[in-house]
Amino acid sequence: MTDAPAAPASPAFLAATVPVLALGDVLLVTLNGDLPDGVAERLQHDITHRIAHSPTPVGGVVIDVSGVGIVDSYLGRVLADIAAGARLLAARTVLVGMRPAVAITLVELGLSLPGLETALTTGEALRLLDHPAAAPPPRPEEPEEGA
Fold first, then answer.
1. pTM for this structure?
2. How many CA atoms lie within 13 A of 22 on its CB side?
């Protein structure tokens, strides 16, 4: 048995991976364009692995779907599975940037995406997760009347 070096990943595979970025205790994922089934599965694995093996606890996952034109039943199931896995690992999942056409398609397909919270923007998602980066700026003190 020989230990041959692993073949390098093909350029098509590398181009099709989805980066998972960490912002404190939140993982940020931005989906753009069509997401092939294999890439969606890999994303699910990557997010679950990052939550389970992070040196600091992950409190939430924000998935931005504003760049996705179509969410089919498979991708809808993968998103629900990501949320279920994250929830089992004590992290919440928020889906942001859903366009009206995508929301209508999900309703028509009968997909409710259990375990996923939704927000219109990434900032709103971070506020839902009580993330410090989303804290509103302090309000200036208003002068007292009669002063």
1. 0.78
2. 13
The type of residue at 82 is I
How many helices (H) and strands (E) the chain has is answered by 5, 5
Instruction: Going residue by residue through the chain, which has 147 residues, state the pLDDT in tens, using 9 for 90 and above.
Output: 444 444 444 444 444 589 999 999 999 999 998 889 999 999 999 999 999 999 999 999 999 999 988 888 888 899 999 999 999 999 999 999 999 988 888 888 888 888 889 999 999 999 999 876 665 645 666 655 655
Distance CA 128, CA 4 (A): 48
Element containing residue 93 per DSSP (H, E): strand 92-96
CA distance 75 to 116: 13
What is the side-by-side strand order in the sheet with 20-23?
20-23, 26-32, 60-67, 92-96, 116-119
Using DSSP, state whether 35 is helix, strand or coil. Answer: coil
Query: Among positive and negative, which fits the CA dihedral 20, 123, 37, 25?
Result: positive
